[in-house]
Amino acid sequence: MIVLGLTGSIGMGKSTTAKMFEEAGVPVHDSDEAVHRLYRGKATPLIEEAFPGSTHNGVVDRNLLGQKVLGNPEALKLLEAIIHPLVRADADAFLEHHRKLGAPIAVLDIPLLFETGGRNRVDKVVVVTAAPEIQRQRVLDRPGMTEEKFRTILAKQMPDDEKRARADFIIDTGKGLDAARSAVAVIIDALSRAE
Fold first, then answer.
1. 9 annotated as belonging to a binding site for a ligand
2. In the chain, % of residues over pLDDT 70
3. Number of domains the chain is built from
4. Is 144 labelled as part of a ligand binding site?
5. Residue 44 annotated as part of some ligand binding site
6. Which of 13, 126, 150, 162 is a plausible cystine mate for 173, CB 3.0–4.6 Å?
7. Which positions does UniProt annotate for ATP binding (predicted)?
């Protein structure tokens, strides 16, 4: 089974592209979705222990947790030390399940793939990209997003040109949904023939 890493900076269209892989029959593990599940399960007692008062009724309260972690690099490191291994274990179980089912390709959707050393966990990498002005507009259209928040997020991410330089495949989502869907089909075909 070929493990394909899917990544891209904020607002580049990664989630939409992940759905296109799913629509084409490729199983996708979404790291963000795994975090949401873990915040309602396995991670809850660990986070409550590390950050007392950050959970409510057995679920991590993201707002309360955010108050304790945002702007506090040490707290953020502690949170990442709790959540990253759990997400990785979740992804490993996902891959094992689909390997047993005989899936030829599986996708790991990892927002910070390069930043967190995830490159060694995948066989090939797809980077989604778009022109900076398209990215900026998409992000600022999100509820609660500000120019300052956007800049802070971007500062933590590897620059887009560097991600593209490290990619095995690039999908420009700024060219529209049909072009992105075609690019997904080309990648699936190329990987299927490479097996």
1. no
2. 99
3. 2
4. no
5. no
6. 13
7. 11-16
